[in-house]
Amino acid sequence: MQNLGHIEKMKPKYTRNDLTVRHHQITENDNMAYTHNVVFNRPLSLREQQQFTRLLISFYDVVHFSRLFGNGFLAEPSITFVTPEQANYTFYRQHKGGDWKELLFAMLATFSAEVVGIAQHDGNPVFDPTRIPKNSPSENSLDLDKGFLSI
């Protein structure tokens, strides 16, 4: 697994249940599309919607162009705001898995803590800042080395 120690300091600790991904998978010609649903704590302004969209596209750019995380992504993600407080995003990949998951979860956690809280990600409150106690010992650590994350 890639050494991402510099990211580890800012990530909250999640439980196995938190990281159980509930997504839709479509397979075509051995390529996969994973669609995820995000519900925010409040409606996002147009600027915040653009910021969330840029976050996901920036994530793709870092993973794709750095080649530090493999090269399984086929295209930029598609992001659709169903309502101002709910979005769907889809990743297109050749295969599951990869060290990039830690980076994605760190970026989503930071967005949730600093911009607008993410109440649910695929029906799971894993990024909801209201459920992470302030100044807890686990506030700045994330253990994703369990191998059960399948975004």
The count of strands amounts to 5
Q: Detail the poorly predicted runs.
A: 4-11, 16-22, 136-151
Q: What helical percentage do the residues reach?
A: 25-40%
Helix/strand structural class = alpha+beta
CATH class: Alpha Beta
Q: How many alpha or pi helices?
A: 3
- Secondary-structure element pattern, one letter each: HEEHEEHE
> How far apart are the termini?
16 Å
- Specify the CATH homologous superfamily: EIF_2_alpha
Let me know the largest β-sheet: 5 strands, antiparallel
Could you explain how this protein is built, in words?
This protein is α+β, with helices and mostly antiparallel strands and 151 residues long. The protein has one domain (5-131): Alpha-Beta Plaits. 26% of the residues lie in helices and 25% in strands. The chain has 3 helices and 5 strands. It has helices at residues 5-8, 46-66, 100-114, and strands at 24-28, 31-40, 73-83, 86-93, 118-121. Strands 1, 2, 3, 4 and 5 form a 5-stranded antiparallel beta sheet that branches. A hairpin with a 2-residue loop joins strand 1 and strand 2. Helix 2 (46-66) packs antiparallel against helix 3. The longest helix is centred in the middle third of the chain and has 21 residues, at 46-66. It is globular and about 40 Å long. It starts with a helix and ends in a 30-residue tail after the last strand.
